[in-house]
Amino acid sequence: MDMHNPPHPVEILGEDILKPLGVSITKAAELLNVSRKTLSKVVNGRGAITSEMALRLEKVFHNPSAGVWLAMQNDYDLWHLKQKELDVTPYQPDAA
Asked: What is 9-82's CATH topology?
């Protein structure tokens, strides 16, 4: 069953992790060993959580796991793609 408009994983990162811990984007970028610009793009929804970023998040903040981060990103991306019309032709087997 498809989730209805799943949250972007950055909502979890910003609201459920960084904010409660009182960790700024600058400090989180230092901990993650990424540029502030890179993390800012992700936190502001202009960048996706990649496999590498998911692993970095897991190692720095421990939860959720990299797999959960990637699943959230995948759910978000897939739901939004399903809202678009794709120019494809469904396969129809030849009638014998």
From this structure: 434 Repressor (Amino-terminal Domain) (1.10.260)
85's tokens:
């019309």
Q: Region 73-94: what's the mean pLDDT?
A: 89
- Phi and psi torsions of 83, nearest 5°: -80, -15
Q: From the centroid of its chain, how far is CA 96? A: 46
Tell me the CA distances in angstroms from 13 to 87, 88, 91, one per residue in order: 34, 35, 40
Domain ranges of the chain: 9-82
| 31 in Cβ contact with 8 (< 8 Å) | no
Backbone dihedral angles phi then psi of residue 42, each to the nearest 5 degrees? -65, -50
SS3 assignment, position 22: coil
Whole-angstrom distance, CA of residue 3 vs CA of residue 83: 12
Question: 52 or 4: whose pLDDT is higher?
Answer: 52
